[in-house]
Amino acid sequence: MKPLPDDEFTAFIGIDWADTKHDICLQAAHSERHEFSRIEHKVDAIDQWAMLMHQRFGGPIAVALELSKGPLVYALQKYDFFVLFPINPSTLAKYREAFKPSRAKDDPTDAEHALDLLVHHRDRLTALRPQSAPMRTLLHLVEQRRRLVGDKTRFTNRLGYALKHTSRKRSTGSSTPTRLCSATS
What we know:
It is built from five helices and five strands. With about 180 residues, the chain is of the alpha/beta class. The N and C termini lie far apart (about 65 Å).
């Protein structure tokens, strides 16, 4: 896949991912200014950020990130306005080392390095193929199912805790009854 010319992208984004948060460095097309931000590693936060980027820039938006698989990649692939460019982690580490001989890792700076690689060396990067519309729909449905399973587990655990707590109070002879739910007629 040949890289798109610079004017084909409305913005360039470098992301340094982590388990709990993602550092972002953003550069609008035809600008040299970098903007830094951070989003939580939660589906809702990623979705809200993606929609904000789409409202602000439209598309397509080039995104460089240190991985080609994983929750963040899957969350971003469902949007057809993102063009994802995975960067090998060792490439980014060597790029960082070229500018920071101390090898000190700093997430916002790594996001900026990913952005720099994307802007200046995109011809050496390969974009991930975008998901088809049916596949994006399937990913969305799987995500919804995952949320529902999480809700079910959470409610089951809460109910189990409440039942155990109630039975312990009754066995110790507690005089105040515990109501699990109230019904009004």
